[in-house]
Amino acid sequence: xxxxxxxxxxxxxxxxxxxxxxxxxxxxxxxxxxxxxxxxxxxxxxxxxxxxxxxxxxxxxxxxxxxxxxxxxxxxxxxxxxxxxxxxxxxxxxxxxxxxxxxxxxxxxxxxxxxxxxxxxxxxxxxxxxxxxxxxxxxxxxxxxxxxxxxxxxxxxxxxxxx
Length: 163
Hints:
Blueprint: H1 2-36, H2 41-77, H3 83-92, H4 94-133, H5 137-147, H6 149-162
Helix pairs in contact: 1-4, 2-3, 2-4, 2-6, 4-6, 5-6
């Protein structure tokens, strides 16, 4: 009677080991991809400047769009919302939307110019992966800070880019 229980435990242990091995392999692949970006300190500094410029450029349009969204909400909850007023409010935000999009495009082009096509493609792939992985990035960042600080810096740069 004890053998089926032992066999079940062995099977469960096998699945756990496979899972841990897969996670470890994925993390190693991720670390290798970070390393392959081969960012110099100068690259990191320039990326930081590009990102800071982007964040500065989007402050005003984001604030204005928040005000416009509030106006739109206020109009929509009125007992008799005016379609003409809703359209006017929406149109008032178009220039700010364009400013946001242009800031994104300027940042993308500056990053691509700095990194070159291949490294830019890798950077974008890693940024997408980071967004998909979500919350477990903080644990990975902490591990990298202890074991591979140069990769932790790169991960932090990519995380800032994805915000």
